[in-house]
Design brief:
Pathway: Amino-acid biosynthesis; L-methionine biosynthesis via de novo pathway; One-carbon metabolism; tetrahydrofolate interconversion. This is Methylenetetrahydrofolate reductase. This protein is α/β, with parallel strands linked by helices. The chain is built from 11 helices and 9 strands. The structure holds flavin-adenine dinucleotide. Flavin-adenine dinucleotide is lined by residues 51-52, 80, 82, 107, 109-112, 117, 130-132, 148-149, 155, 157-158, 164, 167, 180-182, 209.
């Protein structure tokens, strides 16, 4: 087990591996999540993260699950936190809950408006408007290592890719130590983001987010919502077999594994798997990469 700080591990040559979960809707979903977490813990991830939901009960689950990971597992949890429908005081309170539970890493996000990623942002009257303000608040409270979001194809609201990269560099300047990307399908989109951010003078480690295509309709919808385009070369591989679910899954895992190889070869600091609370696809990709000595 590696006791160095997250930043030290991200700055190391050896790629980190991390897993992302989401807060389940009900107790059955939570049971499944704990099974998944137990199956992935032996891979000794550098960190695991839990996304922050849109509503009260799912938010409580996020904090509770993240706290329990800190208390009952050997893994380092990163708690996501957003600005959606919360006052500055409420946001500070969640940071305090994380701190009290021993969760010292947070992913500071604006969050998507209740109408979804494509809807207009709705500011809370006593709240904050941009993730950078949450980075600053976490540092005011103190004791946190803070990460932020990054967008290989640009955030949907950003006027252009350079402005998008400038925002990430600003967040790094405000004290964000690392970034994790939105899902994407082409390694070149990731490397071009890294180049743009370096051109802005920031050396913040940017961890690529990996989501294998296991269910074509689901990933296509998530990609569209997040502003990531499903490239023609990926569509050409999946569409002809779209009705054959096992074939889609196998192809999706092969494509994601190749993406991981390309990312590591190009110097990505780690791989962050969006697991959707299931372990098997992530394990298959991880085993393949480990067999090749890449992770
Ligand atoms: P911001 O950094 O605030 O940026 C939002 C927009 O404002 C961008 O267009 C940006 O260019 C612009 N902007 C930012 N700062 C400035 C400024 N100072 N001046 C002018 N323009 C500015 N959502 C959830 O609800 N829960 C989650 O758990 C969650 N986890 C995520 C994890 C990852 C790895 C990623 C990549 C995204 C995640 N999201 C999550 C989605 C995210 O909240 C949305 O993509 C959201 O729309 C943008 O969040 P942000 O933190 O990048 O916002």
């Amino acid at each position: 087990h590696d006791d160095r700080s997250l930043l030290e591990q991200l700055r190391d040559q050896r790629p980190t591996v991390s897993f992302e979960f989401f807060p389940p809707k009900d107790d059955d979903g939570e049971q499944l999540l704990w099974t998944t977490i137990a199956e992935l813990e032996p891979y000794d991830p550098t960190f695991v993260s839990v996304t922050y939901g849109a509503g009260g009960s799912s938010r409580e689950r996020t904090v509770r699950i993240t706290a329990r990971i800190a208390e009952q597992t050997s893994m380092r949890p990163v708690g996501h936190l957003t600005l959606v429908r919360q006052s500055r005081e409420e946001i500070a309170e969640v940071l305090q809950q994380y701190a009290d539970a021993g969760v010292s890493h947070v992913l500071a996000l604006r969050g998507d408006p209740p109408g979804g990623p494509r809807a207009d942002w709705e500011p809370h009257p006593g709240g904050m408007d941009y993730a950078i303000e949450l980075v600053e608040l976490a540092h005011e409270i103190g004791g946190f290592s803070v990460g932020v979001a990054a967008f290989p194809e640009g955030h949907p609201d950003a006027p252009d890719l350079d402005e998008d990269a400038r925002v990430l560099a600003l967040k790094a300047g405000a004290g964000a130590e690392f970034a994790i990307t939105q899902l994407f399908f082409r390694a070149s989109d990731y490397f071009e983001l890294v180049d743009r951010v370096r051109a802005q003078g920031s050396d913040i480690p940017i961890v690529p987010g990996i989501m294998p295509i296991l269910n074509f309709a689901q990933v296509a919808r998530m990609a569209e919502l997040s502003g990531a385009a499903m490239p023609a070369e990926v569509l050409a591989q999946i569409e002809p077999i779209a009705d054959d679910k096992p074939a889609v899954r196998a192809r999706g895992i092969a494509l994601a594994t190749q993406l991981c190889r390309d990312l590591i070869a190009g110097g990505a600091p780690g791989l962050h798997f969006m697991t959707l609370n299931r372990s098997s696809a992530t394990r298959e990709i991880f085993e393949a990469l480990r067999g090749e000595g890449l992770v």
